[in-house]
Each structure stands twice: as C-alpha cells, then as structure tokens.
Amino acid sequence: MNEDEAAARAPGLGEAWRARAEEVAEAAAQARMMAQGFRAPADETAEPMPAFAVPAPARAVR
Amino acid sequence: MSAPLHDLTLAEASAAIARRRLSPVEYLDALRARFEALEPRLNTTILPLWEAARAEAQKAARRIARSGPRSPLDGLPVGLKDIIDLAGHPTTCHSRHLLGNVKAADAAVVARLRAAGAVFPAKLATHEFAIGGPAFDLPFPPARNPWNTAHHPGGSSSGSGSAVAAGILPAALGTDTGGSVRHPASHCGIVGMKATYGLVSRRGVFPLAFTLDHVGPLTRDVASNALLLGAMAGHDPQDPGSVVRRAENYRRHLRKGLKGLSIGFVRHFHETDQPATEEVAAALEAAARLMAREGAKVKPVTLPSLTDFAAVNRVILTSEAASIHGRWLREAPEGYSALTRKRLLPGLFVRAEDYVQAQRRRRELVAAVEAAFAGVDLLLTASSMDPACRIDDAEAVEATYSRQARTPFNVTGHPALTLMCGLSKAEGLPLSLQLVGRYFDEATIYRAAAAYERAAPWAALRPAL
Predict the structure, then answer these.
(1) Which end of chain A is more exposed for a tag (fewer CB within 10 A), N or C?
(2) Are the C-beta atoms of B208 and B317 separated by less than 8 Å?
(3) Is position B81 annotated as part of the catalytic site?
(4) What is the pLDDT of residues B77-91, one digit of tens each?
(5) Contacts of A46 in chain B (CB under 8 A)
(6) How far is CA B156 from CA B8, B166, B178, B354, in A?
(7) Which residues of chain B fall short of a pLDDT of 70?
(8) Residue B42 domain flag
(9) B121 domain residue, yes or no
(10) What are phi and psi of B238, to 5 degrees?
C-alpha cells in the first residue's frame, strides 16, 4: 500500500476515489491545517461547547 | 401606485395591501413579469412556482376583501433557498444527488409564514448543499449579481440575494452556517439577518452543520427584514436547538434612533486580521462617523483574531457536514460538483480530538464576545473585505471564505445583520457593514440599522438592470 492509498483508506474512501488521489491528499492536508489554525484552549480538561447550546437571554438596552 | 410595483419593499407592499390600494394578485403579476424579463441573465431560480403562488394570492385577495389581512404578510411573496422544504415540491439543494427529493411537508419556518398568509413563487438557487459554489458543473447554473452579472452574488444563499436585489421578490429566506445569508446580502446591497442561534426553527431545512446552522431573512430594507423575522421566529419543540421565547414585534423599535447606544467598532478584523480594500475600510470609517453624528457613542473593541474564529468554524462545519455527507462522499463522489467535494472532503479527515478541541475553543470565543458586550450595546464590523469578485475567478471566489467577518457570529451564535454602506468606485458594486447584538437582542440591531439606513444615502440605490 503506498502513501496515497493509505491516506484514502483511513476515512473509508475506496474504489470510487481510486482516480482522485490528488483530491484526497489535498483534503487530508487541509484538515491538518484547519486543526492547527486556532489557538489551543487554555484548559484542555474544560467542557467543550455542547451541541445545540441555546444562548441565555441577554439584558437588552431597550 | 406611482412607483413600479417591483420597487416596493416588503413593508411598503404590506402597507399598500392593508390599505386596499394594492391587490396581492396585481403585485405578484408585476413581479412575475420582472422575473421573466431578468431570469435569463440572473439564474435566480431552480423551480419557478408562480402559477401556484398566484392561486394562493387570489385566495389571499378574497380573504382581505372579506375581512382584512390575516397578518402583515398576507398575500405577500417570499422566495425559498432550495434547501428549505416546501410541501409537494423537491428540495434539490442545487445538487444532482437530490433531483427527485420531493418533500411531503413544509419546513417549520415555511409553515409559520404560510399560516401568516405568505405565498411562495420560487425555490431559489444556492451553492450546492449550501457549501459548493458558485459551480458550473451542476444541473442548474449559478445565480448572478444584479449589480453586474459578471460578478459573484455571494453565497451560499445566492439566488435569494440576487432575486431580492433585482426586484424579482421583495423577500427571500436563506441559511447561514458561515455567513451564507449575510454574504449575498453584502454583495447584492440588501439587508440580511442571521438571528440568535435557536430563534428560528431549522426543521425541514437540509443541514450543513447542526451547531452552526441558522435560517434568516433577506430583504431590500431594514423594516421589511424586521417584519419578516418577526413572523419566522418562534419555538419549535421538534428542533432540538430551538429556544422557548415569546414572539416579538421588532418594528416597534425602528424609529428610536441611535442616541444613547454604545457601539464597539472592531477595527482589527479589517485592518490587521484580513486587511480590507481601502474603499471598504473607508466606507466602514464613514459609517462609524455617521453613527456617531446620529448620537451613538462609538468606541474601539478588540476580540480574538478572525483567524481563530474561522479555523474553529471550519473544523466544526466540515466535521458535522461529513457526518451528513459521508456515505455519498465515499460511494458517489461524482454526484457532487468538484468544488463541493473539495469543501466537504476535509471533514472526513478531521480527528475527533480536533473537533472536541474546536468546540472547547469555541466556548472561549463565546466568552470573549460576551465580555465585549459588557461594555457596549452593539458591535460594528466589516462584512466582506472586498466587493464582489468576478464569478469566473475561482481564486478570488475561494478567498471570499476567509476575507470576511461573518463567521465569528456563527461560532458564537450572536445575532448579526449586514447592510449596504457604500459603492465601489471602479465597478459600482455594493460595500457593506455588519452590526452584531447581544443574544436575542435583534431589536437593538434593527433599531441601529434603521437609523443608519435613514441617515445614509444607500437605501435608495438599485442595480441598473
């Protein structure tokens, strides 16, 4: 298995992607870049944002 | 009526119908003529439904003649981005994957508008699945910018922005996961609102990223936007992200003016994080000065960098989108446009750890914006850092995703509205600003936006079509 095939295999990209190795490599690189694009959280044991976190109502100026 | 009917705003048409000076049928017929004249150049629509809408407008006309309008929206047309379900019709998401996707029920937001008497003449063009566009390898062509049809109208609610700016429709719904209501509003010189996360139900809207998705109105003026959002908002127990809140009449606040409001101007977004063109920066400074002259206290505010917000948004968006598109991506990638594949595929490679870290950093970003609101009532920021690029310039189109300041408020869920604040000199394309409010304080955004709209010269401008 070469590097391109290994990259495609991880997320389950099979036969349909055989001729698209360049797209796969680009997507993998893009994902790595995105993950490094934000500052690491100050506390890595903090609770993450829950799904569907509806904001608390704010005090309006009106 | 002296002005052409297609020039009426939603609020003006509503008032004329209430006074029995305009029939919903006469109004719809005028808009249909406008659609037929302009559609070959603009590609706003995937599925035209003018005949069905006319039948509904006739019913509304009879109802109004008998007992007056059911609501301020009775008989008025609203376009739907074609990721929003309309009973009996396909929701294609502008994709060959869903050409036969006929829906049995209305989306919750459509049901609310239908109950208010609104009619639906068109399912409108979008970027494929609200992410991949503008693309030229799809079953439908991309929408064009009415100010210059060689240019990008913004997206992903591209048909919504184009149809409203062109006077084909007085209002349309879009969706906004990383700025997709406010981007076309900015490039088409109209008003786009992404309300607080949870205010408008997303049930029956094809999801892009569950924790970032919003449905929002696009209109030609602030009063119409306030009118439409008031009818769209409301609790939906079947949407897990929907909030329990009383309906609000946002229009009550439109004449209160800017005096007494404190506005934080987030300059670093467009000065250092993603430097805007000189024209955009100058238009924002002029808008801030005008707001100060009108009585607002404008002061500088610093938030985390745009880069931080954008990366958090992309990690979350692509991960959640991959959970929706994973099967098609793996088994039928050729069903998407090349651009959609490029945008969606990275989501299959994001590690679970990175998704959780992004959601953890997201809480810190929310806290930073909330801290800023301890000292101000509103934030003023750039929307796009450039006027609309050419639609066939792939590199410039790609840059529109990073060169903007809309994404932060999908990450945090704060309400945000964009409206016009200038015209580019060389090409006469709209420039725009963004006003951001406290959670559920859409009314103060509308109040400030309406005051700015009255004081500035831009609202009267229309594309020369």
Answers:
(1) N
(2) yes
(3) yes
(4) 999 999 999 999 999
(5) 360, 363
(6) 25, 17, 9, 26
(7) 1
(8) yes
(9) yes
(10) -90, 0
